[in-house]
Amino acid sequence: MTTTTSTTSSAASKPHYLPTLDGWRALAILGVMLCHDSIHSLGPFNTGWLYMHGDLGVDLFFAISGILICSRLLTEEESQGFISRKNFYIRRAFRILPPAIFFLATLLLLRATVHLPVEPPEILASLFFLRNYTSSFLHFQTTYPYYTSHFWSLAVEEHFYLILPTLLIVTPKKWRVPVLLAIAAAIGLRRTVINLWWLGFHTDMRLDALLIPAAFAVALRSPFATNPVNRALIRPLRSWPLKIAIALLIPITYYLFPRTAGLLIAWFTPILILQTTLNPYQWPSRLLETPVLRYIGRLSYSLYLWQQLFLISHFGAGTARLGPLQAWPLNWLMVFACALFSYYVVEQPLIRVGHRLAPNVPANQVGPTTHFR
Predict the structure, then answer these.
(1) Alpha carbon of 138 to those of 43, 131, 144, 159, 362: distances in Å?
(2) Lesser CB count within 10 Å: N end or C end of the chain?
């Protein structure tokens, strides 16, 4: 992925590239970071809303992944006639594991040197992407299990990567959208009925946030977009995104529907994201495609890993071990410094290795642009 100064020229040279998604990644990671940090003020403005609701950035990440991963698999199927799970898992392994292992190894080093409160069981649970279930087993974590707690969302995504290719392979094409939505509906209903917050990190309680956008990705493909059911599903994607943003943010801000908030987020977030890709010349899309946001979006995975070490004000009582490096403004500088090192030294070189071993769809492509117009 390269930085360009012209969105138009970039789109022309990479007809499948959707720079808007990098902008959404930037908003997602900045929301998470401002949620985990203390509240910052500038005159009459402050980050209090993001301190309370910035964790919605994780839901943005889920929606982006559901759209992008499913679209890549469908593009492979269209171009090669089949979906190769082996190649998909090789590319995902080289994309996800190296930066995560580097981060976890750093935590172990800091445990040995400055007594950072992390324990080997929670490191192992993070490494094997089971961290979203270990809260049920207190012996797997420290008193303040903060430094690895963000691996819960990575675990949900990894489980999605394991499930989706098989679902697409074994499900007849005409039944893919109904099957994905039926599973998502069952998960959403279960979450609404049970409504226990500590179970909300479990894959079986959150996977609808990835399956629903995957269903949209299938519905948008030709010839599936001509199916009456799929047309009804994608019709809301043609309207202006501000309507969906208002419909999503007002109930969340005022806690209007606490039991069904998860359903609202799981359905409306991918609609909001896809609206900006379907309306590329409107100002929300142009804002998301600004070079700064796109660059931050490309760093978002490394930023997500490293912010947990330095931004501890919201959840990290009793965990501070790095002194001023975990206080404003050095904490933000350290997050970006570590993320830049991880991105250029670990993440990008290993992604290239993965694509050499299992070449397919280049990074950040989602299939022919005509499927989204």
Answers:
(1) 43, 12, 11, 22, 41
(2) C
Between CA 361 and CA 79 the distance in angstroms is 10
Name the token pair of 219: 């519905």
pLDDT for 106 beyond 80: yes
What are the two backbone dihedrals, phi and then psi, of residue 46, each rounded to the nearest 5 degrees? Answer: -150, 175
The pLDDT value given to residue 136: 65
Q: How far apart are CA 251 and CA 265, in angstroms?
A: 10
Asked if 270 contacts 216 with a C-beta cutoff of 8 angstroms, the reply is yes
251, exposed or middle or buried, with CB in 10 Å at 0-12, 13-18, 19+?
Answer: middle
The range of the structural domain enclosing residue 256 comes to 22-38+46-372
Could you identify the residue written with the tokens 């990567």? 161
Decide if 14 is inside a domain: no
What's the whole-model pTM score?
0.90
Q: Measured between alpha carbons, how far is 217 from 100 in angstroms, rounded to an integer?
A: 28
135-171 per-position pLDDT tens digit? 766 656 666 688 999 999 999 999 999 999 999 999 9
Between CA 210 and CA 60 the distance in angstroms is 10
Highest mean pLDDT among 198-202, 207-211, 243-247, 319-323: 207-211
- Domain annotation covers residue 7: no
Report d(CA 70, CA 178) in Å as an integer: 15
* SS3 label, residue 315: coil
Question: Among candidates 63, 42, 38, which has minimal Cα distance to 52?
Answer: 38
Residue among 60, 299, 113 at smallest CA distance from 307? 299
Task: Give the phi and the psi of residue 365 in degrees, each rounded to 5.
Answer: -100, 150
Q: Could you give the number of structural domains in the chain?
A: 1
pLDDT of 250-266, one tens digit each? 999 888 888 899 999 99
Determine, yes or no, domain membership for 17: no
Per-residue pLDDT at 101 exceeds 90 = yes
CA distance 234 to 240: 13
